[in-house]
Design a protein that fits this description.
With 476 residues, this protein is of the alpha/beta class. The chain has 14 helices and 19 strands. It folds into 3 domains: 151 residues, 5'-nuclease (Rossmann fold, 3-Layer(aba) Sandwich); 68 residues, Archaeosine Trna-guanine Transglycosylase, Chain: A, domain 4 (Roll), CATH 2.30.130; 201 residues, P-loop containing nucleotide triphosphate hydrolases (Rossmann fold, 3-Layer(aba) Sandwich). Strands 5-6-4-3-7-8 form a 6-stranded mixed beta sheet. Strands 16-15-17-18-14-19 form a 6-stranded parallel beta sheet, sandwiched between helices. Helix 2 packs antiparallel against helix 5 and helix 12 packs across helix 13. The protein starts with 30 loop residues before the first strand and ends with a helix. 43% of the residues are buried.
Length: 476
């Protein structure tokens, strides 16, 4: 069976130089060659899931050699057609090895581009003493294992490492005494310390809080000892008073944040007020909102989009389609709309909730219906958005934790003039088998984009859906 398209982040093998920033160190001990000399040379065997995650993965192992089993090429052939990111990755990698092997045989070790790079080759399925297909069964994963085992047998003086996003395949490899690792490039190492976008400051000078209440702003130097991140939010407290504020780096000042209402939706806590402020701020073009179920991520994003509907030509609310049990949606009955409805229903639920804040005869209620009928507000799978140029659009991407870093980058790169992009999700609630809290696109965005003047992030902590929903989040 071919690997799922969403492999997780990419592993960088350790460089011989410890000064090479960003390189990941292979977790293998130094071997002693047959002539008694120590060797640090490694050969990394890449699984299909790694290629589908990052077509340039073969270039990310510094001076070490890289190989792919012939079975990987067979699997990539199944992914080369289509408009999804995985199809793009497959095509780009195929073009890469086609260019690399233009005047050479792929069964030979070919030099990779660059003076400090290693070599590359395709491994053929050949017989060896240990046969994974006889132990685990005859499937593509096990032929890939066999290729790595054969290489290990041929290269006893070198480290052979299988690199795959498939946890189960890594376990099978280790059961056969084969070193196996995840592809780690892009992984966030400290998820617990991931940027939250806001802080609480105690013992703030009373005159600073008075300035924020009376004139709406105060000099940052009155409160902050060091330069904060751009568009960072604060709960400022003095002995008697407190105020919500955000750091406007352009003006070099703290500005008061009020609990404004957006299309009938009013924030219920400080973090929601911060999120709504960022969503409504026209100078902030990229927003991410992270939090557990029931914290109001999608609801706030959609309400703010409706409130600003006159500023944009369309509102797009999209989410990645993650098929159940790794089956393609084609197995579901009905036409394409019927197949996708179950995946889009949570988005319609949020829209209905906002609509029900008003009576059926009110202008606000009728306006939402009109926006849907005229396709000014479109709820659609994310796959239908890719490849387009997004201008004058308020674009909400829900369940962004199910995207790879490359997919997040691709979406943002489609933004045209007067477009705002919002990513919402929960990095601990991932539905794809090859992503986790460290490697998903939402975590990657939060870590990389912080402290940019066009970006703001808020982590929502308190569930506001209901007391029963809070019980599930806290106790179960």
């Amino acid at each position: 069976m071919p690997k799922a398209s969403k492999a997780t982040p990419n592993p960088k093998a350790e460089s011989a130089s410890a000064e090479n920033k960003g390189a990941r160190t292979a977790k293998v001990k130094e071997k002693i060659s047959s002539n008694g000399q120590a060797t640090n040379r490694k050969i990394f065997v890449l699984d299909t899931s790694v290629i589908l995650y990052d077509h340039s993965a073969a270039q990310n192992f510094q001076e070490h050699d890289v190989a792919i089993p012939i079975t990987v090429l067979e699997e990539l052939d199944n992914f080369k057609k289509g408009n999804d990111i995985k199809n793009f990755e497959a095509r780009e990698f195929i073009r890469f090895i086609d260019k690399l092997s233009a005047e050479h045989k792929l069964q030979d070790w070919l030099p990779l581009n660059g003076p400090t790079k290693g070599k590359f080759k395709v491994l053929m399925n050949e017989s060896q003493t240990l046969d994974a297909t006889k132990i685990f069964g005859d499937k593509n994963d096990h032929w890939i294992l066999n290729s790595a085992l054969q290489l290990q047998q041929e290269q006893p003086d070198n480290h052979v490492v299988l690199v795959t996003k498939d946890i189960n395949l890594r376990l099978k490899a280790r059961a056969l005494n084969l070193i196996a690792e995840d592809y780690e490039t892009g992984k966030i190492q400290d998820v617990a310390g991931l940027y939250t976008g806001n802080d609480t400051l105690e013992d703030v000078p009373a005159n600073a809080i008075n300035d924020l209440y009376e004139q709406g702003y105060c000099e940052s130097s009155k409160v902050l000892k060091s330069n904060p991140a751009d568009n960072h939010y604060y709960v400022l407290k003095s002995f008697k008073n407190s105020v919500l504020a955000y750091h406007n780096s352009t003006e070099g000042q703290l500005e008061r944040v009020d609990k404004a209402t957006a299309y009938g939706i009013k924030p219920r806590n400080a973090e929601q007020a911060f999120a709504l402020h960022a969503l409504m701020n026209p100078s902030i073009k990229l927003v991410s909102v992270q939090g557990v179920a029931g914290t109001g991520k999608t609801l706030l994003a959609l309400a703010s989009a409706l409130e600003q509907r006159r500023e944009y030509k369309q509102i797009y609310l999209a989410r990645p389609v993650v098929p159940l049990s790794n089956k393609d949606i084609g197995y579901l009955p009905g036409d394409i709309k019927s197949k996708l409805n179950p995946y889009m229903e949570p988005l319609w639920d949020n829209l209905k909730y906002i609509q029900n804040q008003f009576s059926e005869t009110s202008k606000e209620y009728q306006k939402i219906r009109e926006l849907v009928d005229l396709e000014k507000l479109v709820i659609t799978p994310l796959a239908y958005i890719r490849g387009r140029s997004l201008s004058n659009i308020f674009f909400i991407v829900d369940e962004a934790q199910n995207l790879t870093p490359h997919e997040v980058k691709t979406i943002i790169s489609r933004a045209g003039e007067n477009t705002k992009i919002v990513f919402t999700g929960d990095i601990y609630q991932i539905d794809t088998p090859y992503l986790d809290s460290q490697s998903n696109g939402l975590s990657y965005l939060i870590d990389r984009a912080k402290n940019h003047p066009l970006y703001a992030h808020i982590t929502l902590l308190k569930g506001e859906r209901s007391e029963l929903a809070n019980l599930a989040n806290e106790l179960l």
